[in-house]
Amino acid sequence: xxxxxxxxxxxxxxLLLPTIVLANYENPYSPPNYPGDVYIVVKHKKSMFGSPIKxxxxxxxxxxxxxxxxxxxxxxxxxxxxxxxxxxxVKLRHSKYDRIPLWTNSDGNITYIKQGGAPxxxxxxxxxxxxx
Length: 132
Description:
Structural class: alpha+beta
Order of helices and strands: HEEEEEEEHE
Largest sheet: 4 strands, antiparallel
Number of strands: 8
Radius of gyration: 19 Å
CATH topology: Jelly Rolls
CATH class: Mainly Beta
Number of helices: 2
Strand content: 35-45%
CATH architecture: Sandwich
Number of domains: 1
Helix content: 10-25%
């Protein structure tokens, strides 16, 4: 009886594991100590069926913090036949000569964070753009 109960619990754990585990990223980034634009590129998290779902990004920089929440089905029309958004790009202005770390936390996949020229995703119509 104990073996059956244990095997049932194990099977339930394996079946429910994808819905319990959430991808959570903590990315410390220290921008260069000169002003410029910082870009954060995020790809949407996926449902257990593989379709993109609403994704949140939390940003903390010194005593400033902000949350960006993006729905991939917000804008369905795109001239390049992109039916849903692949992700989103957040542009921040680094206006001081300092190296205060920027902390990001997302339930999606943070592809990268960089300061400098705009990344290719900024010009891609499959990515939504935010300027904070």
